[in-house]
TrEMBL record:
PANTHER family, sorted: RING-CLEAVING DIOXYGENASE MHQE-RELATED
UniProt lineage: Bacteria, Bacillati, Bacillota, Bacilli, Bacillales
Cited PROSITE patterns: VOC
Name this polypeptide is given: Ring-cleaving dioxygenase mhqO
Source organism per UniProt: Paenibacillus naphthalenovorans
Keyword Iron: no
InterPro entries registered for this protein in UniProt: Extradiol_RC_dioxygenase, Glyas_Bleomycin-R_OHBP_Dase, Glyas_Fos-R_dOase_dom, VOC_core
Coiled-coil positions: none
UniProt keywords, alphabetically: Dioxygenase, Oxidoreductase
Molecular function as annotated in GO: dioxygenase activity
Keyword Ribonucleoprotein belongs to the record: no
């Protein structure tokens, strides 16, 4: 039986200002900051995770806010649009909310679904679609209540330098099913109910440049450590060179670059973000892996202060 991922685990992007990042994803989009930690490879930079009430796999968008970072260019070899999904009937609420916060957006349609497309403060391309499938978020913040809240990822639009090769990886390696093609896009679906719909350009897209406002990598779900090892073996058998397993504290990860230029990660569902904090206090304290704890004072001193705050547009 072909090994199949449930879909997207998380998506990680570069931005510039940490407080702007928090204000947009928590203040405007109503996501919960579920983990405030550091980039384990560059501890002078935050790693911020936003998702549903516990940051479940399929809901977590994560950021490296790097002050003064160069602006990237979205293009081939990257995620083009990160897709959020909201409950059926909630799209009109989000249209009004984007207008309320003076965020320009466009309406578009793909595969008989309506999308609102917009950008964050760094130019990262986002879109919202409504669907019935997938559990609702239980998180409420500002003007966003659970009946309207982002449930997690609807999926993503991939921009590939070699779409035929990327599509082959999606089908033959990751186990997604091709379900449609129209207007220059091919649609694939994973077996999960969040982060499960992937659209990809049918023709090559000019290469992008990494930097603020671009996605660094897209991560796919592995059920557990045993499944994770099977994925690594599968990648090796298919001619890829995955990294060794990397401990990311809240999941284990392997990375590989598929032939269309996109950096893929495969991440384990467990242990999750409640590993080192109680659920009701997620995201409140800077959490460090044990090997950085001796340097906490210096790390905290070097990071800009951030706060989760209700924005003025949501205040009476």
């Amino acid at each position: 039986m072909l090994q199949q991922t449930m879909g997207i685990h998380h998506i990680t992007a570069f931005v510039t200002d940490a407080q702007d990042n928090v204000d947009f994803y928590a203040g405007v989009l109503g996501l919960r900051l579920v983990k405030k930690t550091i980039n384990f490879d560059a501890p002078e930079v935050y790693h911020l995770y936003f998702g549903n009430e516990v940051g479940s796999p399929g809901t977590a968008i994560t950021f490296f806010p790097w002050a003064g970072a160069r602006r990237g260019r979205i293009g081939g070899g990257q995620v083009g649009f990160t897709t959020f999904v909201v409950p059926q009937g909630a799209l009109a609420f989000w249209e009004e909310r984007l207008q309320q916060f003076n965020i320009p957006f466009t309406r578009t349609e793909r595969f008989s679904e309506e999308y609102l497309q917009f950008k964050d403060k760094d130019g990262l391309q986002l879109e919202i679609v409504e669907r019935e499938e997938g559990p609702r978020s239980q998180w409420a913040f500002g003007g966003v209540t659970p009946d309207k809240a982002i449930k997690g990822f609807g999926g993503a639009v991939l921009y590939s330098n070699a779409p035929d090769k990327t599509m082959n990886v999606l089908q033959q390696v990751m186990g997604l099913e091709k379900i449609g093609q129209e207007n220059g896009f091919v649609r694939f679906k994973a077996i999960g109910d969040l982060g499960n719909v992937i659209d990809i350009n049918a023709a090559p897209v000019g290469s992008g440049i990494g930097g603020a406002g671009t996605v660094h990598h897209i991560a796919w779900r592995a059920k557990d450590d045993e499944d994770h090892q099977l994925w690594r073996n599968r990648l090796l058998q298919n001619g890829f060179q995955p990294t060794p397993v990397v401990d990311r504290q809240y999941f284990n990860a392997i990375y590989f670059r598929e032939e269309g230029g996109i950096l893929f990660e495969i991440a384990t569902d467990p242990p999750g973000f409640a590993l080192d904090e109680p659920v009701d206090a997620l995201g409140e304290k800077l959490m460090l892996p044990e090997w950085y704890e001796p340097h906490r004072a210096a790390i905290e001193q070097g990071l800009p202060p951030i706060q989760i705050r209700v924005l003025g547009e949501d205040k009476p």
